[in-house]
Amino acid sequence: MKQMTRREAIESIKEMFETNTGQEDNVSRLIEEENDTATFMLDKRKYERGEIVEKLSEFFKDVNIVDGLCRIEGITFVFTTVKIEERRKKEDLLC
């Protein structure tokens, strides 16, 4: 299994979905990027949710993001939100 940093995963998603950091209409956007975490809003007029899931599943099937994860968030009508973020440690999850 290939090991990948969060930064490498972010760059791969930027390329895969042709994201843009601008605010132009009808484009997929990288809306937040800080400390090797990123939030992407992928325009559903360009990429159906199923297509996003399929592309990400195929890409990450043999890839481990070191200390990180890729998460697809809840459903909206216009965008699918994808995040690359730090993987929480078990002790952080315990109450």
Q: Could you tell me how far the N terminus lies from the C terminus, measured between alpha carbons in angstroms? A: 32 Å
| Oligomer designation | single chain
How many H/I helices?
3
Mean pLDDT: 85
Largest sheet: 4 strands, antiparallel
SSE arrangement, N to C: EHEEHEEEH
Overall tally of domains:
1
CATH top-level class: Alpha Beta
Task: Give the strand order, joined by hyphens, for the main sheet.
Answer: 2-3-6-5
Radius of gyration: 14 Å
* Form type: globular
Please mark out the parts with pLDDT under 50 across 5 or more consecutive residues, or reply none. Answer: none
CATH architecture name: 2-Layer Sandwich
Strand tally: 6
Portion in helices: 25-40%
Structural class of the secondary structure composition?
Answer: alpha+beta
